[in-house]
Write a structure and sequence with these properties.
The strands form two sheets. This protein has a seven-stranded mixed beta sheet with strand order 6-5-4-3-2-1-14. A seven-stranded mixed beta sheet has the order 7-8-9-10-11-12-13. It is built from nine helices and 14 strands. The chain has a single domain, classed as Ribonuclease Z/Hydroxyacylglutathione hydrolase-like (Metallo-beta-lactamase, Chain A). Strand 10, helix 7 and strand 11 form a beta-alpha-beta unit. It is globular and about 55 Å long. The chain is α/β, with parallel strands linked by helices. The structure holds zinc ion (2 copies). One zinc ion (ZN) binds next to helix 1. One zinc ion binds next to helix 3.
């Protein structure tokens, strides 16, 4: 386990999912990655769990959210941070209602203005005034690019571009999580200095209009210069975990589902 203790505070991170929108194995695909017996080649849709001393949260609640929570025996969550509203990032949101029941209060969901509007439309039943039994009890909190707090945990939104869609990454202490980016504006790069851990998306080897390739992700890591970087949101086209991992520069790692690190 990687340890990077700073000011006596520590956060635990669990990669709940590290796959792109189709996950791995891809339905109907017989490629060597999809047929691999290595557990590290099986990827649910991307999400990460972040736990500090007082606060536990997830970034994104994709279609695999419920199984990710159960597999990792997570029984407490204070909030969800949403990067954007493509379905591989929010379509498990309904299942977050369990944490409203556990916490006995509305479950906070943090999202930028456009994402909050889409969540309100697409999960309209959760926000209507007529409260059917069993519908989610959510509290949608619209954020911009200004830092905010959950308990004493400072969270800094990091605006990035997913092709033409402005979406959010997040910085929490010396850790930052960026997924689905194809471009990081210079103002956002300034917010990513002095990181211990950067998680960043690397879809595949060949060019994609809306996601960093492996080479682009490595270039971006060299620009940002975190102590360690972990790649996520991977497609089966990236290749086998063990093969790709073996070729990566020092201090860059392929994340895999269930990987636990501390920061
Ligand atoms: Zn995605
Ligand atoms: Zn495949």
């Amino acid at each position: 386990m990687l340890l990077c203790i700073k000011l006596g505070k520590m956060m635990d991170l669990i990669f709940l999912g590290t796959g792109t929108s189709s996950g791995i194995p891809v339905i109907g695909c017989h490629c060597e990655v999809c047929r691999s017996k290595n557990e590290k080649d099986k990827r649910m849709r991307s999400s990460i769990y972040v736990k500090s001393e007082e606060t536990a949260l997830v970034i994104d609640t994709g279609p695999d959210f419920r199984m990710q929570i159960l597999h990792n025996e997570i029984e407490h969550l204070d909030a969800a941070l949403i990067t954007h509203t493509h379905k591989d990032h929010i379509a498990g949101l309904d299942d977050a209602k369990s944490f409203a029941d556990i916490n006995k209060r509305p479950f906070p969901i943090f999202a930028n203005g456009d994402s909050a509007q889409i969540i309100e439309n697409e999960f309209a039943y959760a926000f209507q005034s007529l409260r059917y039994p069993g519908i989610p009890n959510f509290e949608l909190r619209k954020i911009d690019d200004q830092p905010f707090f959950i308990h004493n945990l400072k969270i800094t939104p990091i605006p990035v571009m997913h092709y033409r869609l402005p979406i959010l990454g997040y910085r929490i202490g010396s850790f930052a999580y960026i997924t689905d980016a194809s471009e990081i504006p210079s103002d956002s790069l300034k917010k990513l200095q002095d990181l211990d851990i950067l998680v960043i998306n690397a879809l595949r080897i060949t060019k994609h209009i809306a996601h960093f390739t492996l080479e682009e992700a490595i270039d971006m890591i060299r620009t940002i210069k975190p102590k360690k970087a972990y790649l996520t949101h991977m497609s089966h086209h990236l290749g086998l975990h063990d093969v790709v991992f073996g070729r990566l520069p020092k201090n860059i790692f392929l994340a895999y589902d269930g990987l636990k690190i501390s920061c």
